[in-house]
Design goal:
heterotrimer; A alpha/beta (290); B alpha/beta (264); C mainly alpha (283); A: alpha/beta; Rossmann fold; 6-stranded mixed beta sheet; 11 helices; C: 283 residues; mainly alpha; MetI-like fold; 10 helices; elongated
């Protein structure tokens, strides 16, 4: 099993400021789903942003390699990198409302990328959009394609964004908290849909989330981040059976579960936080970034 | 009874479908809600977005005026009470908001945020009470001099709780107060909220979309769906033998942190 | 959890120093004009007409920025002109701000009929072309400093009303307003104690902008000879006079123009700088 995406020792910092990502390494195999788990501020979204080249200007990549399908990206010029990413990767964003242009109809928003960037004919792109909307189980496709985003529910909008992400058959999809804004009942449908689509298309998927419950439903492997450092990397089954790092254990015990009202929702003990902070400090001293 | 609510109805104008001339059509958000809330209960109110759970909460505090029905608070009918008459009672029912970033005035220090409402109600020993409230939510005294943006999300939410309990209310409404927090702070906030409710003998209504959180904290649960109560039960009963289809759907949709849950 | 944002220090504003410095300098010049000005701004001496500024050939010592066609000292006239400019900026700016911002705050916070009345009034008001409106007003009121100030207030209060209304609407929807109601604060006290401090940075930015605009409006009206009597020196009046002799004595036109330009720019930059500095929070 070869890694389709491989990130090695990626270090990102705020210019003249603190380190955001600390020698992050991770691999996503073709056709697999890799979860990126962490609390707010852990830097999990920054990894996706680095990949897509949408890192804020105030941040810089100071070390590391990103291998995508056998080519290293960070040594290429930004323009080449963006072209390569644009042709092979796509994003499912967190907020389905702001990710769609409110003043444009749905149809053109799906087909535009196909026509403008990949050079499809309008008719081909239109047919492809219909096919995909059917695949994400959207009823009355012709009507939906003529609608504006505000006329659709949150779940519908997220389905459309999923269809749009898969439109150009990308080899890699980055999903950044794609269900956080949705109701649980809708979340369930959307997670199912993403899993099915990913499976059918054989896409590698990097799934960013704060929710271990969601991870256990969709991922094959996962990395746990704390303060921009990967503290544990595991196959999914093993992680939930036997988490190794104390922070992972604490995070798992803090995750709510209605089946286990006494054993879940446990506060993360202070000594665990102290220990993991110490680990981060030690890493910085060794890496010479402190 | 802390609250007796009968056939509560509430609607908002639907501006998206307003005709060019004339009034906008109204969307009914609460469609005849009735329930009793005995003193000392920790009631969970659960539902998806658009279920009307936040609207119900805000109507209970009379931040919104109902179209029809009645709300009795501790025996007093507050359904149509005007703001001047309500002001004297407001100390007794308090609210903790979902987003502490928006509910704490960014230009006030924590001490002032907690003291402000007490001063309005002419309470004595305000400074001592601020210290006590900070103590109760486990924040150091020095935080009184900080601004909200200098705190973490969990700390901000504790300030929101301190502000509510400092007034020594009889009833507190907590509207999705942990949904914006990381799981680690979520657990802490829930734990000491539970303790506070027990120690102070509060009646609490806890609005949430998360049934796991509700099971942890509440003794009774109200399930709302599209403006109507679809199920009302004791917590244990609701989780062991849910009666309504919607409750079952909600339960089965919760992603448990367990790879063996049959789901996808 | 660590918060990287807190660790970033904002640089101290150079533009705040530059713009604030120029305004302070101007204010001092205005207050102490009779003491600072090297010459009487009105004293004519036809033998000294159209003297160039000090670095050019044929400059007369003591007349740093040259003289106009009647032999009046340009520097002294600019310094005295600063008086009018500063009075107009301060008085007209402040009154416009207080009236416009109060109405905007009430409309945005109370909504309902207050908003309907105030917003309609603003809409109707803004349908008049402003410069024509001002000229018409002064024609009715008669020229003079008072008329200029009244004209500026009457034209420009709508700018404040509109912006502050929108800001108050946004702030009014925040939960801290609901929480003030839960705490039992009256509506009026909520507006003053909760909303006002949060719209203040915007008010300050608008106020400084308005001061700059007031200076320009005064200059425009002086230019078309509708301002103060032609005796007292104003920048607009100087520009109007300088225009006629621009080929023979460009300095009569250029120096007041530069003073005007720097002042208006400084006011707007001061506002932006203050807003950045005193709005350290979250938006």
């Amino acid at each position: 099993m070869s890694a389709y995406l491989s990130i090695r020792n990626l270090t990102v910092r705020l210019k003249n400021g603190p380190v955001i990502l600390r020698s992050v390494s991770l691999e996503v195999a073709a056709g697999q789903v890799h979860g990126l788990v962490g609390e707010s501020g852990a830097g999990k979204s920054m990894i996706g942003k680095t990949l897509l080249g949408t890192l804020p200007r105030a941040m810089e990549i100071t070390a590391g390699e990103i291998w995508l399908d056998g080519t290293e990206l960070l040594s290429q010029s930004p323009a080449d990198r963006r072209r390569r990413i644009g042709a092979t990767a796509a994003l499912i964003p967190q907020d389905p409302l702001t990710a769609l242009n409110p003043s444009k109809r749905i149809g053109p928003q799906i087909t535009r990328r196909l026509v403008d960037i990949l050079g499809w004919t309008a008719a081909d792109a239109d047919a492809r959009a219909r096919e995909l909307l059917d695949e994400v189980q959207i009823p009355q496709i012709s009507r939906v394609m003529r609608s504006y985003p505000h006329e659709l529910s949150g779940g519908m909008r997220q389905r459309i964004l999923i269809a749009s992400a898969f439109a150009a058959e990308p080899k890699l999809i980055i999903a950044d908290e794609p269900t956080t804004a949705l109701d649980v009942t809708v979340q369930k449908q959307i997670l199912r849909l993403i899993r099915n689509m990913q499976h059918r298309h054989g896409t590698a998927l990097l799934f960013v989330t704060h929710d271990l419950g969601v991870v256990s439903k969709i991922c094959d492997t996962l990395s746990v981040l704390y303060a921009g450092k990967v503290v544990e990397e595991a196959r999914m089954q093993r992680f939930f059976m036997r988490p190794i790092h104390p922070y992972s254990q604490a995070l798992l015990a803090a995750t709510p579960s209605y089946l286990d009202p006494e054993g879940s929702l446990m506060p993360v003990p202070a000594n665990v936080i102290d220990a993991v902070e110490e680990e981060v400090r030690f890493h910085d001293i060794r890496a010479g970034t402190r | 009874m802390m609250y007796e609510i009968r056939d509560l109805r509430l609607s908002f104008p639907d501006l998206a479908h307003k005709p060019l001339l004339g009034a906008a059509p109204r969307v009914e958000v609460l469609k005849g809600i009735s329930f009793d809330l005995p003193k000392g209960t920790v009631l969970g109110i659960v539902g998806g977005s658009g279920s009307g759970k936040s609207t119900l909460g805000r109507a209970m505090l009379r931040l919104l005026k109902p179209d029809a029905g009645s709300i009795r608070f501790d025996g007093t009918d507050i359904t149509h009470m005007d703001e001047d008459a309500l002001r004297g009672m407001r100390r007794r029912f308090q609210m903790i908001f979902q987003d502490p970033m928006s509910s704490l005035n960014p230009r006030r220090r924590v001490g002032g945020l907690i003291a402000g409402p007490m001063r309005l109600h002419r309470m004595d020993n305000v400074d001592a009470r601020v210290k006590e409230a900070l103590d109760m939510v486990g924040l150091p005294q020095s935080f009184a001099a900080r601004y909200p943006h200098e705190l973490s999300g969990g700390q901000r939410q504790r300030v929101g709780i301190a502000r509510a309990i400092a007034l020594r209310p009889d009833f507190i409404l907590a509207d999705e107060i942990v949904s914006g927090l990381d799981v680690s702070s979520q657990a802490q906030v829930l734990n000491f909220l539970g303790e506070l409710v027990r120690d102070l003998g509060l009646t609490l209504a806890f609005i949430s979309h998360d049934l796991s959180v509700i099971r942890r904290l509440c003794t009774r649960v109200l399930v709302l769906h599209q403006g109507e109560i679809v199920e009302e039960a004791d917590t244990a009963q609701l989780f062991d033998a849910p009666r309504a289809d919607y409750t079952r759907e909600l339960l089965s949709a919760i992603p448990l942190p367990d790879p063996h849950q049959r789901w996808v | 959890m660590r918060d990287a944002r807190a660790e970033v220090k904002r640089p101290i504003g150079l533009r705040l120093w530059l713009s604030g410095g120029w305004i302070a300098l101007l204010a001092l010049a205005a207050i102490f004009a009779p003491l600072i000005a090297p010459h009487d701004p009105l004293a004519q001496d036809l033998f000294l007409g159209r003297m160039p500024p000090f670095w050019m050939d044929g400059a007369e010592p003591g007349y740093w920025l040259g003289t106009d066609s009647l032999g009046r000292d340009v520097l002294s006239r600019i310094i005295h002109g600063a008086q009018i400019a500063m009075i107009v900026a301060l008085v007209a700016g402040t009154i416009t701000c207080v009236i416009g911002a109060s109405l905007g705050l009430m409309a945005g916070y109370y909504r309902g009929w207050a908003d309907r009345v105030i917003s309609r009034l603003v809409d109707i008001w803004m349908a008049f072309p402003p410069v024509l409106f001002a000229i018409l007003l002064i024609a009715v009121l008669g020229p003079g400093l008072m008329s200029i100030i009244i004209a500026i207030i009457v034209i420009d209060w709508t700018r404040f009303a509109r912006v502050i209304r929108a800001e108050a609407l946004t702030q009014g929807a925040m939960d801290y307003v609901a929480s003030a109601q839960v705490a039992g604060r009256t509506r009026f006290s909520t507006m003053l104690a909760e909303i006002l401090p949060n719209v203040l940075p915007t008010v300050v930015a608008l106020l400084t902008l308005e001061m700059g605009i007031a200076v320009i409006v005064e200059a425009i009206l002086s230019f078309v000879n509708l301002s103060i009597s032609t005796d007292s020196p104003t920048w607009g009046g100087m520009i109007a006079e300088g225009r006629t002799s621009v080929h023979q004595a460009w300095w009569v036109l250029v120096f007041p123009l530069v003073a005007l330009f720097l002042t208006v720019l400084s006011f707007s930059q001061l506002g932006e700088g203050l807003k950045d500095r005193f709005d350290p929070v979250l938006r």
